[in-house]
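pinging the channel bc i need a second pair of eyes. not urgent but kinda urgent?? the chain im working w is below, pasted from the shared doc
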Amino acid sequence: MAEKKDDKKAKAETTAARPGVLKVHHLRPVPGSNTAKTRVGRGEGSKGKTAGRGTKGQKARYQVKAGFEGGQMPLHMRTPKLRGFKNPFRVEYQVVNLDKLAELYPQGGDVTIGDLVAKGAVRKNEKVKVLGTGDISVALNVSVDKVSGSAEQKIVAAGGSIK
């Protein structure tokens, strides 16, 4: 029992010996940062009687809808709306450029979607399109979902084919 008291005493002395230690229960808000909520319409003093609403009129009584402009055509009705529609059948392709293919296949060979997924060039279960940015000097046999016209010309010119 005496050992426990000694341990507590030693612990208290070590914490007291560290005056610069910040503790949560010593934290206080900066003076002036917490201001009291203004209570309006309580007596004749400041913000009393009309409660800062002026005298009479629609805005002095109950509520006005947000965006109400006093009978004028509101801004949200004056501005043009989004035209057209979103096509639910749109097909999005993952893009691979020829310079990337030249980097991935320096000796040429067969390019398939499975190979591109394995090499980390595209994500699986999505359509792939090859575009013509960059040059290619090796023969590639490309079998993907779609190939752009310029990419097709460059692949065929390099001795490759498209399936």
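so Residues 94-162 form a domain with the Ribosomal Protein L15; Chain: K; domain 2 fold (CATH 3.100.10.10). and The longest strand covers residues 94-97. — does that match what u expected or am i reading it wrong
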